[in-house]
Amino acid sequence: MTSYIIRRLLLMVPTLLGMTFMLFAVVRFAPGLREAGQANVVQGMMQSKQAQKQEQMLVALRLHLVDKNGHPISLPMQYLLWLKSTCEGHLGTSLEYPEPVLKLIEQRLPVTLTINLISMIVIYLVAVPGGLLAAVNRDRLFDRGYGLMSLALYSLPMIWVGSSLLGFFANPEFFNWFPAAGLHATNTQSMDFFQYIGDYFYHITMPIVCSTYAGFAFLSKQVRGSILDNLGQDYIRTARAKGVKGSTVMLRHVFRNSLLTLITLTGMSLPGLLGGSVIVEQIFSIDGMGRLAYTATLARDLPVIQTVALIGSVLTLLSYLAVDICYAMADPRVSYA
Amino acid sequence: MPDALTSTVRMPENGPPPQTFWSRVRARVFRPWMVKFCASYIVLVCLIAVFVPFLATGKPYTCIVPAHHGVPMQRKYPLFRDLTSVSWVLLVVTGALAVQGSCVFFTRRLMPDMRRRRRRVWLAVVTVAAVIASGLIVALHHNRLDATNYRSLAAHEKITHAIFAPIPWGYAAMEPLSKNLINKLPSQQHWLGTDGEGRDVLSRLLWSTRVAMGIGFISQFIALAIGVVVGSMTGYFSGIVDILLMRLVEIVESVPLFFLILTFVAIYGRHIFYIMVILGVTGWTGYARLLRGEFLHLRQLDYVTAAQASGLPLWRVLFRHILPNGVTPVLVSASFGLAGAVTIESSLSYLGVGVRPPTPSWGQMLNAAGNPATVFHWWQALGPGMMLFITVLAFNIVGESFRDTLDPRNAGAG
């Protein structure tokens, strides 16, 4: 098992290298990169020419465009320098905030990951029973209705749902049931633990609704498909012929085999959730990774965008790895020698 | 592939033309009324996108300027004079497609003996003519910005006999902003109300189909082109090409799509053509994977060996012999890809990093409806939300039906 994990980790290296190269290339060949530094200087207009020039030099130095003496660095060297500092954990300083990128990400990554984790749990709690029921009632009314409903849910645009939720349920004009923004009330200091948790869940209700409904549809469709595939297998007939109870066949035989599909889909859905968090976090004003990526996009804050994309893809690759390991553990037929 | 679909039926010489694989697929895909409805909806939206300058605009088709100050009476055609080059190109392309479609339809019906090659020559002539005409339009046509307020001219009888479009409002505000036009509920004049700048919501809704359909179709076309080239290369040549190109696919796939798109948008800007290219360049990996699988299977078949042995050039083997047999799963996936592209475009516009205003887009309108959040103008959100929902749903339903038809597991059914 250990050797399998190590091999998988080694296989990740070329992909990671290629990905860093892609991000580097995309950013380096950006039109007007040299002017990018000017946008970040808030008082750019008021500064003297000298100070502006210094600021630009600093930005160029940060982006590894020039060395300490102001000589331009060749492209391959730029890449290597950038890679080296990235590997050492120096992900650069944001052009927009006076903080290192790593610190920005450190504050925001847990927020996004927690919300995504909770969404994933909610999705599973709804989609798995739903898919199971649809498969059991194949081609009956429930299955047809459920199929159509999930297709409709899947097609509902998140921006419409999000802005309508916000407009109708966090609005004194209609129903002022939920908070419109943020993750916590202002008086968190005076709360005990359970109040704090309660307040947190109260705040994330609408974001969770917004980020889960499309997942229900997708996942339950997959669950239904994989259960139907398994239902046709011979060992199911054998189990039935032996006289095993119907519910036992469903849960112990069919469902356990369908778990494999679920494991794969869990890992696959992470990039989608991370990407979707851009929209959800922006609508509900939650300071997470997605919102960071968005504000960085508006400000053309290249180091931040680069790092967010980098971390997003590392997370994705890690989740693929986790899927493979879980798969190997769950299915004795998969050999990982 | 199921046998029922692939085996062609030999008909007697004078009977109806033999059924092909595609005609059977088409018949089966569009059998449910829901799919028929969705397909017609998509066609309708595309037609709206082409003809919207005639549907929703503040300019009259024609009007008469009465004689004044010694200038004789004149008949004017403001709408046609001010069509933008994009509108002209869309009209030319649609016209060419209509001519080709009717040519195919009528020659099949009336002249079944006509040789396919002869028909193809005519189709090619029309295509070339359309391309040349489009090029000329882009090169020579100057877009005019006509800010004349024809409605008020007509009201003051400065022009007479004016014939206005069914929705006599453009997508941009052309008249000085007056307080009583802003954020109005639906009324007889403005069927879906007005937005924060006093613009007609319905008109903007219709104009947005251009951005949605344009970005959807063109971005997926680019993605398909890249995916077909990469996928067929990886599937056909195994070995080093396969390994390298599949790493490329993995690399592009490893970055969460929306982060990747945001990175590109941040760097290359948000012009509509850039967004098309960005969505295309980031969205091809699924197509490449699907085609790779198909090519891996198909290249071992005898007919491919026969094609190679008869000395055909590589591109012909790849794209004329293998591709047509492996393209169906990709087309299914393209239908979902279109839905995805429309969604992503609207999300980008919603976030304010999509197409630039005043070019209307559904996402942008949704954003304007609830901004700031405490004032939510539901009528401004309803229209774009519904249009977006129905369009995406229509693409998904057609794709679903397509997939079910081609799924070998369903071969017995239907």
Characterize the structure shown.
- The complex is a heterodimer of chains A (337) and B (414).
- Chain A has 12 helices and no strands.
- Chain A has 337 residues and is mainly α.
- Chain A is globular, with a radius of gyration of 25 Å.
- About 3% of the residues of chain A have low confidence.
- With 414 residues, chain B is mostly helical.
- Chain B has 17 helices and 3 strands.
- In chain B, helix 8 runs parallel beside helix 12.
- The longest helix of chain B has 36 residues.
- Chain B is globular.
- The mean pLDDT of chain B is 85.
- Chains A and B meet through helix 1, helix 6, helix 7, helix 10 and helix 11 of A and helix 9, helix 10, helix 15, helix 16 and helix 17 of B.
Question: In short, what is this structure?
Answer:
By secondary structure, chain A is an all-alpha fold. In chain A, 74% of the residues lie in helices and 0% in strands.
Helix content of chain B: 55-70%
**Estimated share of beta-strand residues of chain B:** under 5%
Strand line-up across the major sheet of chain B: 2-1-3
Quote the distance from N terminus to C terminus of chain B.
15 Å
The rough form of chain A would be described as: globular
Number of helices, where a helix is a run of at least 4 consecutive DSSP H or I residues of chain B: 17
Helix content of chain A: over 70%
Rough outline of chain B: globular
Any low-confidence stretches of chain A, pLDDT <50, length ≥5?
36-46
> Biggest interface and its residues per chain?
A-B, 56 and 49 residues
Mind describing the biggest β-sheet of chain B? 3 strands, antiparallel
Q: DSSP helix count of chain A? A: 12
